[in-house]
Write a structure and sequence with these properties.
eight-stranded mixed β-sheet, 308 residues, alpha/beta, UDP-N-acetylmuramoyl-L-alanine:D-glutamate ligase
Length: 308
């Protein structure tokens, strides 16, 4: 069995405005700086997994525009298999509008575009790929019914799935044993559990409560407080790395992709989480989604420096 990681998800054009502070409703804030990069939770996760050393196949739907062509070229530059990417005649590429405040906090709005065309029928045609994969990574920027079908096929063939339940939507996916790794931040964990999280002990209780609903492992990322995981062997806590954040966009995606690569590599979960946390820490020190995602040599150097 090869070490293939299959990522099925979204790909977006990110239109980014760095502003002195995030505006209130109805307010205009001037003095911004604008850049355009590529993002999308699926594409970010795939990029992070590939740059962390994973053998990645990325499945998404793109528009037949110049953005779509550029995206594929970028994926291929990161050594991804893009043969399963499909182009839609009647939809543009997905688009995200991102505002970033002075402290790195952000607010994001997304137009799905071609991402909404990733259908159950397309996923059914990928059954052989899913069955041959070592791990499948999912997020919540494609139709929920599509993710449900991926989970069904993965369970049928015994393929582990890491689901980054972000963003949390009204149409929920059932939390059960088809999910090998459920990854959420504290806001998403609170939305799924109905319990607010204001401390690490509360996060641990919520993680265990979510795990008891079915997922085999539940990981909650806590920003500056690190990350915790509820497993059937007990709780795992990984400390955050001390960095000065510039832009938190793609931090969670980078964590998930790097974590997936480390899991497939065979690292124990605490070590895999530490590697993912390092990748995420590097990510937030740069602006833009995919441009900020580190490569394996950067992650290794960062970890070596923190141990010195």
């Amino acid at each position: 069995m090869d070490k293939r990681i299959t990522v099925i998800g979204s790909s977006n054009v990110d239109l980014i405005m760095k502003v002195p502070r995030l505006p209130s409703a109805g307010e205009t804030v001037t003095g911004g700086e604008y850049i355009q990069v590529f993002g999308g939770k699926g594409a970010n996760t795939a990029t992070a997994a590939a740059r962390a050393g994973g053998q990645v196949t990325f499945i998404c739907c793109l528009g037949k525009d110049h953005f779509g062509k550029q995206m594929v070229e970028n994926f291929q530059a990161d050594q991804m298999d893009t043969s399963g990417i499909q182009f839609m005649d009647d939809q543009p590429c997905g688009t995200a509008l991102i505002m970033i405040g002075a402290n790195g906090e952000n607010c994001i709005s997304v137009a799905a575009g071609a991402n909404g065309a990733l259908s159950i029928e397309m996923v059914k045609s990928l059954e052989d790929l899913i069955s041959e994969s070592c791990l499948v990574l999912l997020q919540m920027e494609i139709p929920v019914t599509t993710n449900v079908e991926v989970l069904r096929l993965a369970e049928k063939h015994g393929t582990p799935v890491l689901l980054n339940y972000a963003p949390v939507l009204e149409e929920l996916i059932e939390l059960d044993r088809k999910i090998s790794f459920l990854v959420v931040n504290e806001v998403e964990a609170a939305a799924l559990s109905g319990v607010p999280i204001n401390s690490q002990p509360e996060a641990s209780m919520v993680a265990e409560a979510l795990r008891r609903r079915g997922p085999q492992n539940v990981i909650i990322t806590l920003g500056g407080d690190g990350a915790i995981a509820a497993t059937n062997q007990g709780m795992v806590h990984v400390q955050a790395f001390d960095v000065n954040p510039v832009d938190t966009t793609a931090a969670g995606d980078t964590f998930c992709g790097s974590l997936g690569a480390a899991i497939v590599e065979g690292l124990p979960l605490p070590e895999a989480m530490r590697q993912a946390s390092a990748a995420s820490a590097i990510c937030v020190t740069h602006i833009g989604a995919q441009p900020s995602i580190p490569r394996r040599n950067e992650i290794n150097a960062f970890l070596a420096a923190t141990q010195a």
